[in-house]
Amino acid sequence: MASTNAAQWSEGTDHAEADPLLNTLLQQGWQLNDDANAIRKYFRFNTYTKVMDYANCIAIKSKRANHHSELTLKARSVTVLWTTHVPKGLSMKDLRMAEFCEMAAKEMVLAVEGGQEEECGPCGG
User: Fold this and answer.
1) pLDDT tens, position by position, 53-68
2) H or E stretch covering 62
3) pLDDT tens figures, 70-85
4) CATH level 2 (architecture), domain 8-110
5) How is the chain split into domains, by residue range?
6) Cβ 41 vs Cβ 79: under 8 Å
7) What is the pTM of this model?
8) Among candidates 124, 123, 120, 122, which has minimal Cα distance to 48?
């Protein structure tokens, strides 16, 4: 696991505030990218519909925060990457949005009831 002091922080980021939050995210499975200026995590879901719901949830929050991620969507997974482009580096916005992603993923998993993961709701498809 990468250490928080390896992170390439965006100019103006308060390290005293950011380091503990980054450390928590790293313990939750987030990883620094190779340049240490972004964090990413792979999330797995039971259905394609959950993947799309999760991606839309992130999109709505991103729009409200005016901070957008890179999302890679596959049939049952989403990879989320957060970085700040101006000023370049990892920022508190990235960390707060990653925290939101954690919370949203947990809510999506809790929303799946037994047996429901194989269904596609009323469409039956």
Assistant:
1) 999 999 999 999 999 9
2) helix 48-65
3) 999 999 999 999 999 9
4) 2-Layer Sandwich (3.30)
5) 8-110
6) yes
7) 0.82
8) 120
